[in-house]
Amino acid sequence: MSFFSLVHSDSESQARAGIITTDHGIIETPIFMPVGTVGSVKAIEQRELSEIGAQIILGNTYHLYLRPGEDVLSYFGGHHRFMSWNKPILTDSGGYQVFSLKELRKITEEGVQFRSHIDGSKHFFSPEKVIDIQRCIGSDIMMVLDECTEFPVSHKEAKTSMDLTLRWASRNKNAFDNSTPRYNHNQFLFGIGQGSTYKDLRRECMESLIDMNFDGYAIGGLAVGEPAFNMYDIIQHSTGIMPADKPRYLMGVGTPENILTAIEMGIDMFDCVMPTRNARNGTIFTTRGRMNIKNLKNKFNDECIDPGLDLYASQNYSLGYLRHLFTVGELLGLQLATMQNLGFYLWLVRTAREKILSNTYRQWKHSILDIIK
Amino acid sequence: MSFFSLVHSDSESQARAGIITTDHGIIETPIFMPVGTVGSVKAIEQRELSEIGAQIILGNTYHLYLRPGEDVLSYFGGHHRFMSWNKPILTDSGGYQVFSLKELRKITEEGVQFRSHIDGSKHFFSPEKVIDIQRCIGSDIMMVLDECTEFPVSHKEAKTSMDLTLRWASRNKNAFDNSTPRYNHNQFLFGIGQGSTYKDLRRECMESLIDMNFDGYAIGGLAVGEPAFNMYDIIQHSTGIMPADKPRYLMGVGTPENILTAIEMGIDMFDCVMPTRNARNGTIFTTRGRMNIKNLKNKFNDECIDPGLDLYASQNYSLGYLRHLFTVGELLGLQLATMQNLGFYLWLVRTAREKILSNTYRQWKHSILDIIK
Fold it and tell me: Shortest CA distance to B125 belongs to which of B111, B107, B144?
């Protein structure tokens, strides 16, 4: 079985349905990956992730390196066993987190020196080091260490950064090729394309990565403040370059509309904190649209949270009760909202896949966005 | 079917096994009631409460009256429907909460005026009013409005307070007898014995309540700071007075040891925030003893949380992972610890019942306390 099989390409768009095969199970694409930053997808149990249809979750190398740390992960035989999740895991390399640290980091040719956001302790990530950490984590899909630029950035700065990202990508690939999995399951490595909103840089970066022959390719450095037009332009441009026989991952994006549009452009994989973070703020995604659950109009609403989703939270509790839980600050509110929002995102990509398989994706996308946008 | 049936009395102690029958199902006693103060047992889903063996949960009249309020509860057809819990509910009258407000309340013959802890708004509870609110909540078991004294208190003050509690109890009973359930299920009313640590007052109070013929009797005003010796003394004294054919409820108590000792003295029902509150502080009750999960010694512990409990949280996650969740502040830690602690308390009373039925309660209590104390 190859790592990625393209099952079907939409006849009316670039949308595609595929299957990623890992030693922890298959992933039907397009897929959304719930974000489990520090070893837990916030406010939801592992069995509930399976229940709502999660096929792969994301972890963050930076956070897991700091806590619980390599010694614990190694002792427990990797992150799957540590967190009791036996489906696939993808780990971000830590590039984006280090990028977010701003004042706490210093980037050199060798790598990036940074201070822990927890205790200020000094650490150093190199391309080789993040491969090593991800071997210790045991993620099914590992990501290269890249440099993510802010928006806006000059062409010159973007070029300089992209060149570094490419040199690091090559070192990542070498470190990967010269190491082996630690826990008797296979691991794959994705390259990350950078280049800000400059198409020539995006092309140069992605083509160079393709030459290095990664297992999949990601588009990084988007959703960092650029207008949606730029983002879509770069996605469309990038998928035109990315090979058809490898998974395509759009990092850190986004709204339901972003995801459906990117699927149409040929993206297979997504992650975003939006469904989980918004859940904790009381913003609920449903098949009837987005809502602020705290709104007074929900006080006397005894309709279930989402009649369109066959999930425990969606079917068994009313909007009025969920509002009450948020009003009084009960943890159950965060749990139910998280299950609802992640369940909605997973329903969205699962339905997208069905529509792709039946060549009705564009029509469905148009009609569903009218409702949920 | 009568409301309460005594199934078996232990041959070696006063411990008893019974069955309480309500329109929302039966309750096998001795029972522990998880506390769902404001319409949710903190950090656990309703289906999970069923899963871990909860047969009845507690709600607080004071809190539910303030939020969501009678208008919402009435609109939703009562608290069972509002919170999607179709097993029995007992509601505390609010007496204890109002007692806890101290500076915010004023007690008169008529009732108690208090200010909301949320917004300072003025409210008035009378015996008649709390019956009315509990009719609106629709709890299966309602409690009378009582006055709870602090510890220590003089005999004179305790007597004055107890006399008021008795006059209120009589008004509660009248209001109950002259009103009907609102949601097509039966409701029962328990009296609450007071009298601080004075046996003569405890006797006078309980005997007067028994004359009023409540559906069950509670011991209130304990676990308010008195020594354990006094508490056990009053429990033993009270169960000697309480009728054998009605349920006996010890309010707000306590540790596993408190509960097992009180069961031995003939108590049938318990509630306490200890398992849920301690869970959120990282104190875990297990069949192998109590522990502070944050302790460094758990860092490299890959044993499951509790091999002695057949529960999702107990069996599927390690002590090391649970410690990690608390260390990094993940909500899942609160969820798993809550399930474990409530599951442990429910296991404790369920096992107590089995041992009573087989006349081995005292022996078992002795051996289990050696482990879990």
Answer: B111
Task: Find the chain A residues whose C-beta atoms sit closer than 8 A to any C-beta of B.
Answer: 38-40, 42-47, 67-68, 71-72, 75-76, 81-84, 299-300, 302, 312, 316-318, 320-321, 324-325, 327-328, 330-336
> What's the number of CA atoms in the CB half-sphere (13 Å) around residue B272?
24
**Residue recorded with tokens 């009750």:** B285
Please give the distance of CA A293 from its chain centroid, rounded to a whole number.
Answer: 25
pLDDT (tens, 9 = 90+) of chain B, 373 residues, equals: 799 999 999 999 999 999 999 999 999 999 999 999 999 999 999 999 999 999 999 999 999 999 999 999 999 999 999 999 999 999 999 888 877 888 788 999 999 999 999 999 999 999 999 999 999 999 999 999 999 999 999 999 999 999 999 999 999 999 999 999 999 999 999 999 999 999 999 999 999 999 999 999 999 999 999 999 999 999 999 999 999 999 999 999 999 999 999 999 999 999 999 999 999 999 999 999 999 999 999 999 999 999 999 999 999 999 999 999 999 999 999 999 999 999 999 999 999 999 999 999 999 999 999 999 8
Assess whether B239 and B254 both reside in one domain. yes
Of A76, A299, A320, the CB nearest to B320: A76
- Which residues of A carry out catalysis? 92, 271
Nearest-by-CA chain B residue for A298: B72
Residue B318 structural domain: 274-373
B12 domain-assigned? no
List CB contacts of A361: < 8 A, sequence separation 6 or more: A10, A12, A13, A15, A263, A264, A352, A355
Q: How many CA atoms lie within 13 A of A60 on its CB side?
A: 21
CATH number at residue A159: 3.20.20.105
Q: Do the interacting molecules here have an ipTM over 0.90?
A: yes
Closest among A196, A188, A148 to A168, alpha carbons compared: A148
- The tokens for A117 are 């956001």
Compute the radius of gyration of chain B from its Cα atoms: 20
Q: What's the token pair of residue A323?
A: 């509002």
Helix orientation angle between A331-357 and A274-281, rounded to the nearest 10 degrees: 140
- Of the residues B246, B272, B298, the one at which a domain ends: B272
Cβ contact, residue pair B321, A84, below 8 Å: yes
Token pair belonging to A45: 């149990």
Which residue numbers of B are catalytic? Answer: 92, 271
Residues A349, B23: Cα–Cα separation, whole Å: 43
Strand partners, B208: none
- Within 8 A by CB and 6+ apart from B222, the residues are B231, B234, B235, B250, B251, B252, B253
Dump strand ranges (E) for chain A: 4-9, 16-22, 25-29, 31-33, 57-60, 89-92, 105-107, 112-115, 122-125, 141-143, 188-193, 216-219, 248-250, 269-271, 283-286, 289-292
Contact B122, B106 (CB under 8 A): no
User: Would the CB atoms of A42 and B324 count as touching at under 8 Å?
Assistant: no
β-bridge partners, A283 = A292
The answer to whether position A300 is within a domain reads: no
What is the domain count for chain A? 1
CB contact under 8 A, B335 and A330: no
Q: How far apart are CA B263 and CA B31, in angstroms?
A: 10
Contact A39 B321 (CB under 8 A): yes
Structure tokens at A239: 């998928």
Phi-psi region of A213 (alpha: psi -120 to 50; beta: other; left: phi over 0): left
Tell me whether the omega of the peptide bond preceding residue B254 falls within 30 degrees of 0, making it cis. Answer: yes
A293 within some domain: no
Among B220, B255, B272, which residue terminates a domain?
A: B272
Match 């690939």 to its residue by tokens: A173
